[in-house]
Hints:
The complex is a heterodimer of chains A (458) and B (348).
Chain A: E1 2-9, H1 11-15, H2 21-45, E2 49-52, E3 74-79, H3 84-106, H4 110-120, E4 122-128, H5 135-146, H6 159-163, H7 166-171, H8 173-179, H9 188-193, E5 209-218, H10 220-226, H11 230-251, E6 254-259, E7 262-268, E8 270-271, E9 274-275, H12 276-291, E10 297-306, H13 311-325, E11 330-331, E12 335-336, E13 339-345, E14 351-357, H14 361-374, H15 384-390, H16 392-396, H17 403-410, H18 414-417, H19 421-434, H20 438-455
Parallel strand pairs in A: 10-13
Antiparallel strand pairs in A: 1-3, 1-4, 2-3, 5-7, 5-10, 6-7, 8-9, 11-12, 13-14
Helix pairs in contact in A: 2-3, 3-4, 11-12, 14-19, 14-20, 15-20
Chain B: E1 3-11, E2 36-38, H1 45-59, E3 63-65, E4 70-72, H2 83-92, E5 108-111, E6 115-118, E7 121-125, E8 133-143, E9 146-154, E10 166-168, E11 173-174, H3 176-179, E12 180-188, E13 201-209, E14 214-221, E15 229-234, E16 239-247, H4 252-255, E17 267-270, H5 278-283, E18 286-288, E19 291-294, E20 308-311, E21 316-318, H6 322-329, H7 332-335, E22 342-345
Parallel strand pairs in B: 2-13
Antiparallel strand pairs in B: 1-14, 1-16, 3-4, 5-14, 6-7, 6-14, 7-10, 8-9, 10-11, 12-13, 15-16, 17-21, 17-22, 18-21, 19-20
Amino acid sequence: MSYIALTMGPIIDTLMLGRKTSEIWMASYLFSSFMKKTIKELKNTTDAKFIVPYVDDEEIFNDKDDGVGMFHDRFILQSQTLSIKDVEKIIQNQKDNLSKMIASSIKADEQKVKKFFDSYLQTYLFQSEENFKNPILDISEILDSIELHTPTLEADEDYLKIFLNRDTILQSQLAKDSFGKKPSFDSIEVIASQEKEIENFQAKNAQKYIAIIHADGDSLGKYIKSQTDVSKVSKNLFSFGKKASQTIKEYGAIPLFIGGDDLLIFAPVLNNDKTVFDLVENLSKDYKNTLDTTVSTLSFGISITYYKYPLYEALQKSQKALFALAKSYQYENTKQKNAVAISAQKHSGQSFDFCIAKDEKAYEDFTSLINNVLTKNLELPHAIHHKLFKHQALFKGIPIKRVADTFENIFNEDIHNDKFKEGLQNIQKLMETLGTDEQAQDKLFSMLSTIKLIRGDR
Amino acid sequence: MSQTYLVTLEPVEPYFFGAEYTFSKDDSRKDSSRYNALSTYFPQQTALLGMLRKTLLIQNKNLTMHLKGEWIDSRGGKKGNDKNYHEATALAGNEAFSYERDVNLGIIENISPIFISKNQVNYIINAKDDGYTPKFLDSKMSLNGVNKNTFILDGYNAKEYKDDTFIGTNKTSLNYDDIFKAVQTVGIKKAKDAQTNEDAFFQKTSYILKDKSKFSFFITLSKELSWSETFVTLGADQSSFKLVLKPTSETFETTFRDIFKPKSLSRIVLNSETLINEQAYSLATFILGKRAIYRQLKDRHGTKSKRYYLLEKGSVLYSDDIETLGAKLSQSHLQKVGINNFTIIKGL
C-alpha cells in the first residue's frame, strides 16, 4: 500500500495575470477544474482511496458547478496498485485536454499551446510506502516543500495570458460547462456597489471599494490530530465549503475559490447595512459549527481598494495581510491568530492597515461602532481622526483612567455634548480597550479610517 | 588597458522603474491606460547598460540632445558613416542588447549585478534557502514528469510569511523596509479640452532609498575615463541619479566572497536575474526560486519585446553536478551585462 500525493500550481502567479473578475475567476477555476477531472478519472479507473479531499459526494464531480471551484490544489490518496507513472499518465491526459480547450478558445496552434502548458502547469507528485503517523499532516508538510520548485519557461507567446481575457473566457467551453450556458460576471464596480445597472457609476463612495478576502484555517494541524477518524476531517471541510459558498453569496460576494479551509472572495465593503465584517463573522460561525471545534479558527486577510486599483496588487495585499499580519498575530500574552487583518488603499492615496483578533474586546467594540454608525444610531464628528491625531502625544503620556477626562477637555463644544456625545463615548471606550501607547493609537486611527471609508467619506 | 570602477547611483528624487505593467502601451489593455503603476525596487541590468552607453556618449560629446530626442549627429560626413558615428560605435557599440546573442558594447567589457551600499556596507539579496536545511528523503517525487528522490527544505513553514532579505558584507541582514521607502503620488490626466473626470485620476508608487543608501555596481572598461561624476537619468520616468565612478581593484566577486553559508548540499545562488535554458534546467535537481518576466522597449513609442522568463536574484539551484550546471549558466553575452551572475557554494 502506498500514498501518492499531488500538488499543483502556480496558482498565485496565475491569479496575478487576471485584470477583471472573470479573468481572476478563470485563473482560479482552471486549477480546481483540473483537479476535479483528475480525481474523477483516478476514482473511476483505479483503486485509489482519497484521504484528501472528500470525494464521496458524486455531485461534486458534475461539470456544472455554477462557477464555484471546490477542489483544492492537492490530493492525497492510498493505493495498492498505482505507481507515480500511472498517475503521471492521467495528469498528462488532463493537461492535453486543457491545452486543447484553450487552443480552441484562442484559435492557436494546439501543439504550441500544449508545449506551453506542459511547462507552465506545475504538477508535482510524491509517493511513499511509509506508515505515516498522521498522513494528512506529514504528507502536506512534504508537499509544502516540493511545491516550491520553480521550473523554467520558454515561450514565444504567453498562451495563458491570451486565454485569460474576458471575452475569450465567456466563450470558452470550460466556462459554459461550469455554468451550463455562457456565463456573465459582475464587474468589480457591480460587486462593490451591488448595483446591477451601472451607468457612469455614480454609486456612494463606500460602494466604490472592493474587499478581497483571503481566509485560512488556524491550527488545522491540531484539529486534525484531535480527530480519531481522519476521513471525517475531509468531510467536515467539504461541508464547510458548501456552507461558506452559501454565506458568501447571501452577502452579495463572489466566492472565487473554496478549498477546504482556504477561501478567496471578492466582496463589496458595504452591502445595504451589512459590511465585510458581518461576512467575516458569519464565515467564522460556519467554520466553527461545521468542524464542531474551537481548536481551529479562521483568520482573514482583507484588502480594501478602490474599484480601479489593479486586482493583482489587491490580491497580493490581501495575501500579505493574511500571512504577514493575521497569521502571526499574538495577543493577551498567550493567544494567537483567529485574527482579521485589514490593508486598505484609498483612492486619495492614503493607506492604512491594522490587525485584531476576533475574540478581543476591541474587535467587538469596533464592529458594534460600525453597525451603530451605519444604522445612524449615533454620529461621529467628521474630522475625529485628525483631532485625535493632533493629541496623539498627549494620549500617549496618560494612564487609561485619564482618557475620559482628556476626551471631555478636548471635545468640549456644545455639538460634542449633544449630537456627537454617544459617538465620542464609543470612541473613548475603544481607546480605553486598545490602550494609549503609540501602537494602540495607530490601530485606533486605522480603525477610524476604516469606519470613515465605510461611512462614505472621501 | 582595462580599468574597473565602482559606480554608485544616488537617487536625487523618488525613482520609478517600469515593470510588466506601467502607464505605457500594453498588450493586455484595449481601453484607457492603467489606474495604478508600481515601480520595481531595482533597475534591470539592461537599463543600467543603456544608461551607461548613453552617458559615455554624452561625456565624450558624441550624442547631441535635440528637442525631439537624442542621437548621433553626422558631422561633416555621410549620415551614419562619419567620424562621430565611428567614435560613438567604438565607445558604446551600435547594437541593442539581446538575450539571445552577443552584441558589441564598445569599451564596456563587463557590468556586475547591481547591489546596495549603505553605511559603508554592501548588500545583496540573500539566498532564498536561508534558514532551511536541504535534504533528500527515502521516497520518490516527480516534478512535471521528471522522477527524482524526494527533496525537501527542512525548517520551511508554508504558513509563515517570509519576505526576501538582504545580506551584508558584514554578515548583517536587512529587510526591504530598511532600504526602500514607497512614495505614493496621485495625478490627473487632462483631456484635450482641459477638463478632468474621475476616470483620469491615477496613482503611482515610486521609491526612495533610505539613509543615504545607494545603488552600486562594478564596471570594467577597456580604457580609462577622464570624468568621474555626473547626473544621469534612469527608468520609465527618467528619474535623476548622481553617478560617481571610483577606480578600484575590487570586483563583485571579491566584495561578496563567502557571503553565503554552506549547507550540506552543493548549490548555486543567483546574484542577478538569470536566464536558464533547458539544458541547464535538466541538470537542476530542485530550484527554489521565483520567475519574473523581463521585456525590453523596442522603440521610442514604448512597444515591448517578447517576454523572457528569468529567475530572480536570490533563487537557489541544487544539483548533483554543480560544476556542469554552472558551466551551462555561464552565458558570456549575458554575464557581461550582469545577468546570469551566480555563486557556487560547495556542500559540507
